[in-house]
Design brief:
By secondary structure, the chain is of the alpha/beta class. It has a single domain, classed as Spore Coat Polysaccharide Biosynthesis Protein SpsA, Chain A (Alpha-Beta Complex), CATH 3.90.550. The chain is 35% helix and 24% strand. It has 11 helices and 13 strands. The strands form 3 sheets. A 9-stranded mixed β-sheet has the order 5-4-1-6-11-8-12-10-9. The chain has a two-stranded antiparallel ribbon with strand order 2-3. A hairpin with a 2-residue loop joins strand 2 and strand 3.
Length: 286
């Protein structure tokens, strides 16, 4: 079955970015010239996704407004003959068909994904965490979808992590199938270097079969009262195979202030209009 739907969890408070996120969603913070969440939406659309559910919470109306039509702004841009900007604005509202689902309590990523069960309606689907920007020759989610189509099983994106990374990510016990594809034999959430199965971590992209929802329901909350998707995948393994894909490309972690700045700088330096003036400016700081 074709993967047509995606879920983007965006209900968190963004406390690592306070005070900037006191009155605006973290997902709307600007990376070069686009809000953070738009990178995930464009990746999903570039992977063939047609319908996107965004999991939101109170105070996230800016997300809905961003991907909605803006008649007043469009009229203003047309009147001022700013046709290039007008086209960009229209493209945003036409990227995909959006559905917004409110998560009333912050009960973990697994719970956020479970909120979209009715929207998914028994189909395979992708999950994209907007904290991560993937710059890939083939969209990262498309790479996962290709593996899903080959194995007809859930697929997680993998990245090589260092010892510190084993404290931040879920780590898999792998069985290598191809150069970049691994069967997941087991996994553990943030084990630390002593207990890590490997250096292959789960880093923010998934394609799930709909059976993940039953696994989430059977997953007990952790010590913080949150349902972790890593624990749900571990339960899913008892019923069906799960695979991991070591993606081709570059990942920018935008989960905290420093990595957000690093991602903004790296992506700006890839843009021709910014390269020379930005490099010249950086030299003045040295």
């Amino acid at each position: 079955m074709k993967v047509r739907k995606a879920v983007i969890p965006a209900a968190g408070f963004g406390t690592r970015f306070l005070p900037a996120t006191k009155a605006q969603p973290k997902e709307m913070l600007n990376v070069v010239d686009k809000p953070l969440i738009q990178y995930s939406v464009e990746e999903a659309v570039g992977s063939g996704i047609e319908h996107i559910a965004v999991i939101i919470s109170r105070g996230k109306s800016a997300l809905m407004d961003h991907f909605d039509q803006s008649p007043e702004l469009e009229y203003f841009l047309e009147k001022k003959n700013k046709l290039d900007l007008l086209e960009q604005v229209k493209e945003i509202s036409g990227l995909a068909e959006f559905c917004y689902i409110r998560q009333q309590q912050a009960l973990g990523l697994g719970h956020a994904i479970l909120m979209a069960e009715s929207f998914i309606a028994g189909e395979p689907f992708a999950v994209l965490l907007p904290d991560d920007i993937f710059d890939c020759p083939v969209p990262c989610t498309k790479q996962l979808i290709d593996v899903y189509q080959e194995y007809a099983s859930s697929v997680v994106v993998l990245g090589r992590v260092d010892k510190e990374g084993t404290k931040k990510y879920g780590i898999i016990k792998p069985k290598q199938m191809t150069e970049t594809t691994f069967q997941v034999l087991d996994l553990v959430e943030k084990p630390g270097p002593e207990k890590a199965f490997s250096d292959l971590g789960l880093i923010g992209r998934y394609v799930f079969t709909p059976e993940i929802f039953d696994a989430i329901r059977r997953t007990p909350p952790d010590h913080r009262g949150e349902v972790q998707i890593t624990d749900a995948i571990k339960l899913l393994l008892e019923e069906q195979s799960v695979y991991g894909h070591l993606f081709e490309g570059t990942r920018y972690d935008c989960g905290d202030k420093l990595t957000f700045l690093q991602a903004s700088l790296a992506l700006a330096l890839k843009r021709e209009e910014f390269q020379r003036p930005l490099k010249d400016f950086l030299k003045t700081l040295e």
